[in-house]
Amino acid sequence: MSQEIVAEKQGRRESEAKIVKIVEDRAFAIKLEMAKETKARAEEEEHYTRELSDQLAKMQEDLDGEQRTREENAEKLVQKVTEQIGQFHDMIAEEKKAREEAQNAMFRMIEDTNAKVVHEIAQEKKDREETEESLIRLLEDTCGKFEGGSGAQQ
Question: Model pTM?
Answer without folding.
Answer: 0.43
